[in-house]
Amino acid sequence: MRVACVLVAHLRARVEWRRQPRLRGTPTVIVDRSGRQPLVVDATPEASGVVAGMTLGEALSRSADATVLDANEPAYRRVFEQVLVALQGVSDRVEGAELGTAYAGLDGLEALYGDEAALVRALGEAVPGDLSPRIGVAGAKFPAFVAARTGRGPEPVTVPGDAAAFLAPQPIGLLPLPPDAREGLLRFGLLTMGAVAAMPRDLLIDQFGHEGRRAWELCRGIDDSPLLPLEPEEAVVERIPLPFTSTSLAMVLAGVDTLLKRAFARPVVRGRYASRMDLACLLHGAPPWEKAFHLRQGVGSWEEASRLIRRQLEDDHPEAPVEELLLELSGLGEGAGEQGSLFPDVREGRERRLAEAERQLRERLGGGAALYRMESIAPWHPAPEMRVLQVPLDPSGGDTIRPLALPTPVEVEEGPDGLPVAVWLEKEWQRVASIEDRWTFDLWWLPAPISRAYYRVSDEDGRQVTLFRDQHEERWYQQAC
């Protein structure tokens, strides 16, 4: 058996670097606070002397200037699952071991890629570069793992025919043994795998039982553990950026409905039921907010899914401004879902008819979305473009949600006091006869602060135009209504 170990060292830290690039190159400690005391689950190399399993107090005593982050295991697991899916695109036999460690079978695939080197290279290229994967290749899983651990760059490490000689100088800390068995080997002065391999097997069995035999075999390169391929799981993933960063629950719900319509319009989902939905909100200045919806009875339509998600989000929703939404449907099956009502939903029937009209119009026009609905998001908002969204009636075409009443840049001539005296409209300067109204607002606390001075002006013919001066950009805009 030829197997490759694909290892992402410090996966948790690398995921955190994605979110907060400023942490790259700085001492960072990631802790799990679910137990009685915080325990370290990962640490960057800059946090000298800190290893997984330490208490937070012990870690800070060794690296006092380290940044401490709370572990976000669902996010780390999601990234690792994405890695496994990418590897499954190269090899049909991929096993996910502990977080950050995967194995891929190589037998029988060399001809498809040309040779084993090209196949291994394809595995490395399947993993995002910022995760810096290391790859070891051997005739069994354990030697391949050790080879990946000894790698220091993108080039794979291949174990030669004599695996025992390759393993001999490696420390016994790499052996998958319980801590007490590893400490027992150290007490006997067995510091390397070569020293363990040189011991009589029966002596190690007498002293350590099954773990002694396992250690002796692994140190000689004997590993008969089979590759356990993952069962490919059908899943549908949709994502959508919001038109602007907002804490509005109404905007989040509008985005969720758009994602649900897209997902349930996919051919792989039609006529089937989803037993799990995962929603992730990418937040501004905060870790992603994530929620999993496990359904005893699957849902077979976006309307059913929307009702379930809305009920949950009304009680539990992101508090920080949301930038992007990601939705995943999984557990797709043919079984029965939630039983529908005996009475038809008039609103749902109307929307289906409109969706059908939308598809027919799109075919005739040969373009994108043709029908939209207006979704009130924040009617109280002082910026008109943040009050209402334009949502495609049939988002399966790929169109996204957009704001209405977007302002457009305009040239304005200012008087000595900074007030508008002329506006360039319809390819000519039009004099401002009077300023009918004026108001200002300054939303300095938003992720993208908004500070505007508005003027509703009339020209000599009595026509009115609403203008505003952006105080940050020091530019004039015409505000659509």
List the helices and strands and how they pair.
Blueprint: E1 3-7, H1 11-19, E2 28-32, E3 39-43, H2 56-62, E4 67-70, H3 73-88, E5 94-96, E6 101-105, H4 110-113, H5 116-126, E7 134-138, H6 141-150, E8 157-158, H7 163-167, H8 179-187, H9 193-197, H10 201-208, H11 210-219, E9 235-246, H12 249-265, E10 273-283, E11 289-299, H13 302-315, E12 322-333, H14 346-365, E13 372-376, E14 388-392, E15 402-403, E16 408-409, E17 412-414, E18 420-425, E19 428-431, E20 434-443, E21 450-458, E22 464-470, E23 475-478
Parallel strand pairs: 2-4, 7-8
Antiparallel strand pairs: 1-6, 1-7, 2-3, 5-6, 9-12, 10-11, 10-12, 13-14, 14-15, 16-23, 17-18, 18-19, 20-21, 21-22, 22-23
What does this structure look like?
There is one protein chain. With 481 residues, the protein is an alpha+beta fold. It folds into four domains: 3-159, MutS, DNA mismatch repair protein, domain I; 164-219, DNA polymerase, domain 1 (Orthogonal Bundle); 235-337 and 345-358, DNA polymerase, Y-family, little finger domain (Dna Ligase, domain 1, 2-Layer Sandwich), CATH 3.30.1490.100; 408-478, no CATH class. The chain contains 14 helices and 23 strands. It has helices spanning 11-19, 56-62, 73-88, 110-113, 116-126, 141-150, 163-167, 179-187, 193-197, 201-208, 210-219, 249-265, 302-315, 346-365; strands at 3-7, 28-32, 39-43, 67-70, 94-96, 101-105, 134-138, 157-158, 235-246, 273-283, 289-299, 322-333, 372-376, 388-392, 402-403, 408-409, 412-414, 420-425, 428-431, 434-443, 450-458, 464-470, 475-478. Helix 10 packs antiparallel against helix 11 and helix 12 packs antiparallel against helix 13 (302-315). Mean pLDDT is 86; it is low at 337-344.
